[in-house]
Amino acid sequence: MDVLGSRIVIVAFDGWNDAGEAASGALAALRATSEYDLVHTVDPELYFDYQYTRPSTQLDTDGRRALKWPEATLWRPRDVGEGPEFWLLTGVEPARTWQSFAAEFIDVALRDDVSGFIMLGAMLADVPHSRPISIFAASQNEQAREELGLEKSLYEGPVGILSVIEHYAESAGIPTATLWASVPHYVANATPSPKVTLALLDRLEELTGVSVPRDALRTEAAAWEASIDAAAADDEEMTEYIRQLERTRDTWDSPEASGDAIAQEFEKYLRRRGDGPGDHKR
């Protein structure tokens, strides 16, 4: 755990990097476990396209209407216990000037002695909801790969904001790791996806040793899976498709299967998505 240090920024953004709202859900679960203080927020005028990510209107407790603008913010825990402390970087993926956006947060991280970054993402994939959620854990940092048993992504192509922040952090000497969860594509509209969020938090605990209370999330995950089972029971075609995915997954998980199965699925997904305008991931 030494490679990521004692002050780790956990990163997740709403939008394309967040299938099933799983990654942002993990940040929300972390945020709910402690009180956090705002460290830094960006000027939305610099980074967001309001036609793409529109401001919203809200009523305050006195009934007055106010505008809420898209944001990206860094938070630190108010009370620090034993073990690594989790800082949280979350918000909406920016629409422009990504280099300045990433550099702005890396400057703050350097100022406040941040020792590591962990990126959380979720992607739609050909996986069954009824099996353990696949997590692709990778790092571009050789020491992190050796100490934490992570993969090295060999993907080449368009990327999203997580990869940009990862690149800027590594360039500044801050080690990083990335966790990507696979969300069953046939339940893409069944958001949020608590089973996927739970898998990300489980893997995060394995990586850092920091335990996050998640009993309520386990209950929600079981209900989510049961609701999909019920929907499939009324759809013979969907039932057969899920069985096919289960057979494939069970083959991957067999002792004879290649250890590269999850990595191959990840790379296949990226190649399939490699036709968009820059809001991609690695």
Please explain how this structure is put together:
The chain has helices spanning 22-32, 44-47, 98-111, 142-148, 161-171, 194-208, 215-233, 236-253, 261-272; strands spanning 7-14, 36-41, 56-59, 65-68, 72-77, 85-92, 116-125, 135-138, 176-184. The protein has a 7-stranded mixed sheet, with helices on both faces. It has a two-stranded antiparallel sheet with strand order 3-4. With 282 residues, it is of the alpha/beta class. 39% of the residues lie in helices and 21% in strands. Strand 3 (56-59) and strand 4 (65-68) form a beta hairpin. The model is unreliable at 275-282 (pLDDT under 50).
Q: Give the count of helical stretches.
A: 9
Please report the total strand number as a whole number.
9
Give the overall shape, derived from the CA principal axes.
globular
Unreliably modeled segments: 275-282
Strand content: 15-25%
Radius of gyration: 19 Å
Structural class: alpha/beta
The neighbouring-strand order within the major sheet is 2-5-6-1-7-9-8
Mean pLDDT: 88
